[in-house]
Amino acid sequence: MLRGQPTTSDLWMGLSEIATFASEPVYCIIDGVDESMDPIPELLQRLLGFLDTRSNFRLILLGRQHSFHKTDSIHHKIEIHPGLTKDDVDRVIETEINRSAILNTPALRDRVLTSIQNQSDGNFLWVKLMFGHLEKSLPLAHGLKRLNKLPRDLETIYEKLLLGLAKNLEEDELNLARKLFAFIVVSQRPLSIAEVQHLLAVDALSTSTDERRSIQDCLIPQLGRRISDLCGDLINIVNGCLQLVHLSVKDFLVRPKEQWPRHGKGRKIMEFRVPSEDAHRWFASACMEYLERCVDGSPLHDWDNPPELERRHPFLRYSATYMHTHMYQSGLPTDSSLNNIRNFFKSNRWIAWMEFLFMSLIEDDSFYSQVEEFNKFASWLGDKKTEILGSASASLKVAHEKRAREYGLEDSRTQQLGIFLHYLGYIHVSPPVDAPDTCAVQSTDPSVNLQQIMQIVQRNEPLPLQFKVDLLFRMIMHLQKVKRLTDPMQILFQMILQHASSMPVYVLLLVGNFYETIHKYEQAIGFYLVVLRKVEAKEGRVKFLILHSIGKIYSELGQYRTSLEFLRKALAGREKTLGTEHEDTLLTIDISCDVYEDLNQYSYSLELLKKALVAREKTLRPEHEDTLFTLYNIGWVYYNLGQYTESLEFFYTALAGREKTLGPEHEDTLFNLYNIGWVYYKLGQYTESLDFFHTSLTGREKTLGPEHEDTLHTIDVICGICEYLSQYPDSLELRKKALIA
Predict the structure, then answer these.
(1) What value does the mean pLDDT of the chain take?
(2) Can you give the C-alpha Rg of the chain in angstroms?
(3) Higher-confidence position of 357 and 656
(4) For the domain with range 170-274, which CATH number is right: 1.10.10, 1.10.357, 3.30.1360, 1.10.150?
C-alpha cells in the first residue's frame, strides 16, 4: 500500500475489485462528500451508477446537508446531530479551561464552560479559536463582555480576529502582518521561522532607500514569539514552521473583493485580503533579491561546506528552488518584472543560482518536477522568452568558454556549464548564440571519461555533494554517446550497484534506463528496485516514475498481474502528486489499460480510459492526436466487450477527428476504418463492412504499398467475407492481386 491518503482513482479501483471478488454484502462508508474536489452531483451520479451494477454493495455517504440538495436519487437521509460529538467537545473545553490561569478562576470557569458548550455546535476549530479569543480578556469585565458576544461561525470569528489586529497594531506592524499572511498563503511549502525572518528582511530591503542596510540589519528578533501578536490565532507554529490554523483561513483571505465588507468597521479588514498574483510577485521579487545578495561565485566549487552556506543564509534553498515558480504565478509579466529578470539573467549570479538549484535537486530528488517548473516559467515569459533566455545563454556561453580556456575541457565545471547550455536548448530556446552539444564538452576519448567515472565511484567515503553532481554530469554525457553495452560499462554498472547507498538517485536511474533502452529488462528492474528502496519513504515524483517504469517492464515481459501491482501504485501516486490531468498520470493510465486488456479485464480498462478522455479533452483539444487515440481505444474496448453500438460511436468520433487532423491516408486513420469494418461484420451488416474494408485497402495500397503485410491481410479479410456471401468472382480477383504481390 502507498503511504498517505489514497487518491480517488485508488479508491475507485479498490471498490471495483472488492465488488468483483466479494461474495457477501459489502457496506462502505464515504465521509466528507461535501469536500470532494469533483463536482458533487457528478460524484453522486457516479456512485449511483456504480451501485446499479453491484447488487452486493451498500453505501453510506456522510457530508454537510447542502451536498445532497441537488439530487433526487437518494431517498434515505439521516441528519447527524451535533450531540453525537458532544462528549468529545466537552472534554476539549474542560482541558482548555484547566490550562488557563485566566479562565479557570471561580468567577469565569462555569460561565465559560456553559457558554462554549452551548455554542460550539460540535465544531472543534471554533472551540480552539474561542479560547484564544477569551485568553486575551483583561480585566474580568472585559472577559465577561467577550463571553456574551461570542461569534457563531468561522467567518465571523476570522473577521473579529482581523478587526482586533487592525485596531491594536501600529502601521508598521500592520504592514508586517499583511505580508506574513500573504507569504504563508502562497508559499510552496511550510516555511521555518528562520526562513520567514530572512524573507521579511529582504522584502523590507526591496523598498528601502538606504543602500547601506543589510539583511542582518532588517531581521526581526524573536519573530516566533511575536507571531501571535501580529497574526492573532490564525497562524500556528508547528515543528518550527509557520502555517495557517486551518485551510478555511486561506479561503477566507483570498476571497474576491466583492465578498469582503465595504462599510463600517468591517472595511478595515479589507487590508488583510491576499491578492494571490500580487503575493506571488512579492515573493518572487524577494527570492531574486535574496539570491543577488547571498549568492556569488560557484556554489558547487567555491564553497566546501554547502550546509554552512545555508546556515548563514536560511532562505537560500527556498529562493533557489521556487523563485521561478512564484514568477509564473504572478500574473502577466510587467515591464518592471521583465527588466529585473533581464538584469538577473545577464549577470553571473544566475549561473550560481542554477548551480545551487542543481545542488538542491540532487539532494531532494526533485529534478523532474523542477524541469517542469522551469518550462512553465519559460512559457510565462511569452514573446520575451527568446530574448531573455538567449541573453542567459550568452552569458553562460562566455563563462563556459572562459572556464574551458583556463582549465580545459576535462574540467568538471567546464562540463557542467556545457550541460546547462544544453538544457537551455532543450527548453526550446533559440538564443543568438548556439548552445553546444553536451558531447562537445566531453573528452574525445570515451574511455577517459569512463575511467574518471570509475575513480569517483570507487571512493570509499560518502561522496561529497560536488562529486555527486560531477558523477551525474559525466554519466549523462557518456550514456548519450554509447548505444551498446560494453564490458567496461558492465564493470562500471556493477561497481555503481555495489556502492548504491552512496550513489545519487539519478545516477542509478540513468543506468536502469540504459538497460531498459537496450531491452535488458531484468538488469533494469534490478536498478529500479534499488532506487525504489532509496526513495520509498518519499511521496515524490521519482518514486512514482520508478513504479511506472517497473510496471511497464513487467508488462513487456508478459507478467501482467505483477505489472498491475506497480502501475496501480504509480497511478495513485501520480494522481496525488501531479493531478489527474497531468500527462505522466495519463501515460500510466494508457499502459494500465493495455495490461487490463491483455488480462481480458475490459471493464477496468474502460473506466480508466473514460477518465483519461475527460482529462485530455480538457487539457488538450478534442482533435488532439492523444485525445483521438483515447477515443479509439474506448471503441476498441467496447468492441471486445461485444457492445458494438457503443464501439461504433467512439470509432466514428475518432475517425472524424483523425481524418481532419492526420489526414485520410494516415496509417491510424486507415486502421480506424479497418476496425469499423469489423464492427459492422460482427453486427451482420456485411455490405457496410465491405465498404469500410475496401476504403481501408485503397488507402493502405497507396500509403503502405501493395506488398505490405497490412495490405495483404486486408485483402484476406475482404476475400473471406466475399466467399461467405458467395461473391466468388470478387474474391478471386483480389486473391490474384495478392498472389502477384
Answers:
(1) 83
(2) 32
(3) 656
(4) 1.10.10
Identify the residue with better confidence: 338 or 308.
Answer: 338
Q: How many CB atoms lie within 10 A of CB 139?
A: 8
Return d(Cα 593, Cα 706) in angstroms, integer: 33
Q: What is the pTM assigned to this prediction?
A: 0.65
d(CA 174, CA 193): 19
Closest Cα partner for 642 from 594, 609, 603? 603
The Cα 672–Cα 651 span in angstroms is 7
Tell me phi and psi for residue 254, to 5 degrees.
Answer: -95, 10
Residues 662 and 625: beta-carbon distance below 8 Å? yes
The boundaries of every CATH 1.25.40.10 domain in the chain are 624-741
What tens digit of pLDDT does each residue of 13-64 get?
677 767 766 778 888 888 777 766 566 777 777 777 777 767 788 888 887 6
Cα–Cα distance for residue pair 459/467, rounded to 1 Å = 10
Whole-angstrom distance, CA of residue 469 vs CA of residue 488: 22
pLDDT in tens, 659-705: 999 999 999 999 999 999 999 999 999 999 999 999 999 999 999 99
List, by residue range, all CATH 1.10.10 domains of the chain.
170-274
Is 7 in contact with 572 (CB distance < 8 Å)?
Answer: yes
Peptide bond into 139 cis (omega under 30): yes
Grid cell digits, residue 622: 478534442
Amino acid at 507: V
With a CB cutoff of 8 Å and minimum separation 6, the contacts of 9 are 571, 572, 575, 580, 608, 611
- Cα four-point dihedral sign 47, 51, 57, 62: positive
Length of the chain: 741
Nearest 5°: CA angle at 592, between 590 and 594?
A: 75
**Residue 299 — left, alpha, or beta (φ > 0 → left; ψ -120 to 50 → alpha)?**
alpha
CATH architecture, domain 624-741:
Alpha Horseshoe (1.25)
**Measured torsion, CA atoms of residues 592, 598, 601, 607, in degrees rounded to the nearest 10:** 30
Cβ atoms < 10 Å from Cβ of 605: 25
Grid cell of 726 as nine digits: 458467395
Quickly list DSSP for 680-711. Answer: HHHTT-HHHHHHHHHHHHHHHHHHT-TTSHHH
Helix (H/G/I), strand (E/B), else coil: 436: coil
Hey, how many other C-beta atoms are within 10 angstroms of the C-beta on 128? 16
Q: What's the per-residue H, E or C state across 258-314? A: HHCCCCHHHHHHHHHCCCHHHHHHHHHHHHHHHHHHHCCCCCCCCCCCHHHHHHHCC
Q: What is the H or E stretch that residue 61 is in?
A: strand 57-61
| Cβ atoms of residues 161 and 234 within 8 Å | yes
> For the CA atoms of 180, 133, 157, 253, what is the dihedral angle to 10 degrees?
0
User: What is the C-alpha separation between 694 and 727, in angstroms, rounded?
Assistant: 15
SS3 221: coil
Please list the residues that pair with 61 across neighbouring strands: 30
Q: How far is CA 75 from the centre of its chain?
A: 39
Residue 247, Cβ density class (10 Å: 0-12 exposed, 13-18 middle, ≥19 buried): exposed
The 3-state DSSP class for residue 214 equals coil
According to DSSP H, which parts of 411-464 are helical? 412-426, 446-457
Query: How much is the pLDDT for 442?
Result: 42
DSSP state of 348: T
Contact 655, 676 (CB under 8 A): yes
Q: Of 245, 55, 219, whose CA–CA distance to 158 is shortest?
A: 245
Nearest-angstrom CA–CA distance, 637 and 149: 63
DSSP state of 35: G
